[in-house]
Amino acid sequence: MLYPLRFTPLFKERVWGGRRLARFYPDLPPGPIGEAWVLSDHPHGRTPIANGPWAGETLSGLREHLPPERDAALMGARVLARGEEGFPLLFKLLDAQDDLSIQVHPADDFPGLPPGERGKTEMWVVLEAEPGARIVHGLAEGVTRDGLAAAVREGRTVEAMRFLTVRPGDVYYLPAGLVHALGAGLVVAEIQQSSDTTYRLYDYGRLGLDGKPRELHIDQALACCSDAPPPAPAQLGLPEPNRWETLVSSPYFVTAHGRCRGDWPQETDPGTFEALMILSGAGAIAWPGGGEEPLAPGQAWLVPAALGPYRLSGEFDALRVRVP
User: Fold this and answer.
1) What is the average per-residue pLDDT within 96-112?
2) Contacts for 220 with CB less than 8 Å, ≥ 6 apart
3) What percent of the chain has pLDDT over 70?
4) Which residues bind Zn(2+) per the record (predicted)?
5) Distance of alpha carbon 270 from alpha carbon 310, whole angstroms
6) For a tag on the chain, would you pick the N or C end, based on fewer CB atoms within 10 A?
């Protein structure tokens, strides 16, 4: 039986985290929670299915039970034809109460990747931003890779960064190799390749939750960073109701924003699963066979590629992610 799957988030304590994810999750555990992994099948955190006959099972556990034709019905023929191991994406909500480290992620072909890891291309949608909140989005104008290396050696890393002041609704694409960092005062939705590899370039001399200096990975970061101009940001804006508008189209994911108002018929693409992240509002999802469940902010859903027609209803904003 295949049906839209809702997932129970996993919470990650981070030295830079806070408490603002409690507005999505009233049962947020104590401590500085920096990340909610809302849909993941990465070995560092597999989110369990929360609804229906497969409740309690992880996505990889479910797929082990499926014959190849049903796995294709879940994941999509085009996704499986890519030949990747496991589920290809990871979805998060992040609460940056403090500045994150200045960091860079490797590409798929980086020779230093840990065994079994992918590269890490990602995107951010800014949900909350305190006045003056900033991000690092690439290198400052005129700074090359060699110039960055010199700045790091001379203790001038921050001077080599391109800082942008951000606001709610901003959308940033972060291809592998782009130096980046979230600043304090931000809550963002993050869509990324299924990877947990980050190379820290600079971390403000901060101690970790264990009271020890956090590890830097300067050689790896410099080896995989790019000095290409960063992609231009986008904005959520006010889309026409009941219409998907593409925000980011990458080799790994195509993300669209939609604003449901009333009844909104949908149709899956048999080549790829659909992932839905509910950002705000309330509604419902209904599918063939009589299934229907409520939608709420902070939820992530995986809609099987072969489901065909289904319906969204209510008044809410969501992201829809497909594999190209």
Assistant:
1) 96
2) 106, 112, 199
3) 100
4) 105, 122, 180
5) 13
6) N
Q: Is 64 annotated as a binding residue?
A: no
Report how far residue 60's alpha carbon sits from residue 151's, in angstroms, rounded to the nearest whole number.
43
Residue 187, class by beta-carbon neighbours within 10 Å (0-12 exposed, 13-18 middle, 19+ buried)?
Answer: buried
**Residue 14, helix vs strand vs coil:** strand
Hey, which residues are catalytic here? 200
DSSP state of 214: P
Angstrom distances, CA of residue 120 to CA of 34, 98, 247: 19, 22, 18
Q: Tokens 């129970």 correspond to what residue?
A: 8
Copy the structure tokens of residue 271.
């080549």
End-to-end CA distance of the chain: 25
Instruction: Give per-residue pLDDT as tens, 234-269.
Output: 999 877 999 999 999 999 999 999 999 999 999 999
What average pLDDT does the segment 274-302 reach?
Answer: 97
- Count of CB atoms situated within 10 Å of the CB of 224: 22
The pLDDT value recorded for residue 239 is: 74
Average pLDDT over residues 117-145: 97
Three-state secondary structure along 35-85? EEEEECEECCEECEECCCCCCCCEHHHHHHHCCHHHHHHHHCHHHHHCCCC
CA dist 155 and 207 (Å) reads 18
Three-state DSSP class for residue 219? helix
CA distances from 242 to 108, 130, 178, 262 (A): 35, 30, 34, 8
Give the residue among 216, 107, 127 at the shortest CA–CA distance from 167. 127
Is 137 known to sit in a ligand binding site?
no
Residue with tokens 């991000």: 135
- Please report which helix (H) or strand (E) contains residue 125, including its range: strand 122-129
pLDDT digits (tens, 9 = 90+) for 215-237: 999 999 999 999 999 999 999 98
What is the reported pLDDT for 1?
79
Q: What is the mean pLDDT of residues 154-176?
A: 97
What whole-number distance in Å separates Cα of residue 158 and Cα of residue 160? 5
